Amino acid sequence: KETLQKLKKFLSPDIFSEIEELCLAGNQEGAVKLLVDLYGTGRAYFRNSRTSITERFNLFPKRVLFEHPLVLRKGEGEGEEIFHVKLRWLLHFLMESKEEKTLLICRTKDIVFAIEQYIEENQIPLKYAVFHSELSLLNRDRQAAYFSDPKGAQVLFSTEIGSEGRNFQFAKNLILFDLPKTPEMLEQRIGRLDRIGQKFDVCIHVPYIEKSFEEVFFKWFQMGLNAFLTPVKAGEKLFDLFKKDLAMARARAHVFFEKEGELLEDLIRRTREEYAEIFRLLESGRDRLVELNSFDYEQSMEIVEQIAQYDGEADLREYMDDIFNTLGVDVEDHAEGVEFLLPSENMFVPYFPCLPPEGVSVTYRRDLAIARDDLFFLTWDHPMVTGIMEFLLGHSFGRVSVCRWKNNQTKKVIIESFFILKCVAPRNLDPDSYFPTTMIRIMMDNEGNDFTLKYAKNEMDEKVKEGSREDHFKVKSIGKEKINGWTTMATDLGRVQAASFIENKVNLMEKNLNEEIMRLTSFAEKNKLDLADEIDFFTAKKEILKEAMENSSLTLDSMRIIF
User: Fold this and answer.
1) What sign results for the dihedral spanned by CA atoms 84, 159, 65, 248?
2) To 10 degrees, what angle do helices 28-38 and 13-24 make?
3) Could you write out the DSSP letters of every residue in 54-72?
4) pLDDT tens profile 89-105
5) Which end of the chain is more exposed for a tag (fewer CB within 10 A), N or C?
6) What are phi and psi of 16, to 5 degrees?
7) Could you tell me which of 182, 184, 246, 174 has the C-alpha nearest to residue 215?
8) Contact at 8 Å (CB) between 329 and 343?
C-alpha cells in the first residue's frame, strides 16, 4: 500500500486504478509489466547485467583465488633472478597439476620466450603451446587448437594478446605470472576462463615476490577492489584516482611496508571508500524498469528451447554435405563433431566463401564452438553458408535439370520452375523481418495448365529419375522459342502467386507498424514525452516498405523439365 501511494502521484487516475486492482488481486507481476509497458522502457534499447541473469540461471562459474607469496633468497633481487624464482614455482605447479588445463598470461613475449627456452633447454616433459604477437593468425589458431584438444597441450603461455577476445573456458587454472596495470586488463585476463560454458571453478593463481611492488598491486586489487573474485565497475576511473600511489609503489615499494605497512593500509582504505561511493552512484543511476523489460524469464526460456530445437536439426549439415560433395570440397572427420574442410584440386568453383587454401575446421555443434575458438560454427547465417548460397544463386551452375518419369506410361511433359521474389529496401528498415526473400514454385504442363498445388516437390522427386545424357540432348532439340514460351507462361502464373504473397506481407507489415505508432502515441500522451521523431520514423518506414514490397522483383532462378 505504501508503494501504491508513492506511485499515485506519478500516474493518471485510470492507470493507477488498473495497477491498484492488479496489486490487490495479488498480481504484482502484472502490475510491474503494465508499468514497464506504460513508460516504454526497452523501446529503443535493452540492458542486461550479469547480476540479473545469475538470479535465474547458474551460468557463470565461481572464482577462487590462490595467492603464492614467494621469498627471494639472500642476494637475489635483480629482474632475471626474480624471473627464475617464479619459474621454479611455475614448473612445480604444472608438474603437480598435469591433469588440468592451465592458461598463463603475462605482459611481454620476452617472458614467453624465456619460459619456452628454459623448458626446451632442460628437456622438461611438458606439453605446452604459446600465443604471442609474432605468430601469424594461422599459427595462433593452431596453437589455440592444440591447447583446446583434450589430448593436446597442458598449458598455454600467452601474452596480453591472449586476453583479448580469445575464449579458453575449458581450462581450469589461470596463472597471472605478472599483474596487469589496470583493473580492466585484469578482468580481461580472468574473462578468458570466467565465461558461460565453464564447467569448473576458475582457479586464479597469483605468484608474487613478498615486500615488492607486486605485493602492493596484489593487495590493491584483492583488498581494495575485490577484483579477483568480482568484476570491477568503473575500473578505469579508480585506476586514474590512484595511479600516483601505484607509480610510487613501482619506484619505492619498500615504503609501503614500513611502520607495519601503514602506507599500504591507507591506500587500501582510501580505495575501498572511493569504490564504495562510485558503486553507490552507479547503482542509483540504474533504470530498473529497463532491466525488468530486458529480461523476461518465461520468454527467455521459450527462445532457449527454440535455439536448442534449431541446433538439433540436421538440415544444414545435410545441405552443406551436398554442397561440399557437389562442388569438390574435401571433408575429413577430425574428432567427434568436428570436420576439416580443404579445397581440392578438382573444385567446380574458383572460390569457396570463407574457405582458406590451407583449410579450416568446422562444427555444427554449439557446445564445441563455445569451447573452441579455432572452429567455425556453421549455422544458416554463417558467412560460409550465406556466401555459397549467394554464389550459387548468382551463377548459372545447376540452373536447369532434366528428369524422366519412373513410370514409362506417363507421357505428359511437366515444367517445374522456381522463382525468387525479393524486396529491395534500405537495410536500416529491416525489410527481411517483414518480407524475407521467398522462393515461389510453379509446376505446369507444356500447355500452361497449373499443377502446382496437385503435387509437392518431394512427391515429384519420388516420381522421377535423373535424365541421361541423351535426354539432355532431346531437351536441347525442343528449341529456344518453345522453351521461352514455357518460361513466359510460368512467369505469368508466378506473378499471380507473388501478388497474393505481397498483399499478405504488406497487410502484416502495416498492422505491425500501425500498432507501434499507436503505442508510441499513447506513451507520448500518458507521459508527456516528445516522441515525434520516433513516430515520424515509423510512419516513413511504413510508406517506404510498402512501396518496396509492391515493387518486389520476381526472377526465374531454376527450371526442371520432366518428360
Assistant:
1) positive
2) 160
3) HTT---SPPEEEEEEEE-P
4) 999 999 999 889 999 99
5) N
6) -60, -40
7) 246
8) yes
CA 424 to chain centre: 27
Instruction: Give, in order, the Cα–Cα distances in Å from 126 to each of 91, 116, 148, 176.
Output: 9, 10, 16, 19
Neighbouring-strand partners of residue 400: 559
- Answer whether 42's CB lies under 8 Å from 290's CB: yes
Tens-digit pLDDT profile for residues 416-460: 999 999 999 998 898 989 998 899 999 999 888 999 988 888 888
The three three-digit cell numbers of residue 165, written as one number:
577476445
Phi and psi torsions of 194, nearest 5°: -85, 80
Q: Is the pLDDT of residue 20 over 60?
A: yes
For residue range 304-336, what is the model confidence (pLDDT) as tens digits? 788 777 776 678 898 999 999 989 999 998 778
Residue keyed to cell 600516483 = 244
- How many C-beta atoms lie closer than 10 Å to residue 238's C-beta? 22
Count Cα neighbours of 312 within 13 Å in the Cβ-side half-sphere.
6
Residue matched to cell numbers 583488498: 223
C-alpha cell at 460: 515429384
* H-run or E-run covering 441: strand 438-445
DSSP code per residue over 474-499:
HHHTT-HHHHHHHHHHHHHHHHHHHH
Question: Checking DSSP bridges between strand 329-335 and strand 338-343, what pairing results, if any?
Answer: antiparallel
Q: How confident is the model at residue 274 (pLDDT cuts 50, 70, 90)?
A: very high
- 406-410 CB contacts, 8 Å cutoff, 24+ apart: 406/463, 406/464, 406/465, 407/463
**Is 491 within 8 Å of 419 (Cβ atoms)?**
yes
- DSSP for residue 352: -
**Buried/exposed code over 141-156 (b: 16+ C-beta within 10 A; e: otherwise):** bebbbbbbbeebbbbb
3-state secondary structure of 73: coil
Q: Whole-angstrom Cα distance, residue 226 to residue 269?
A: 13
The DSSP call for residue 40 is T
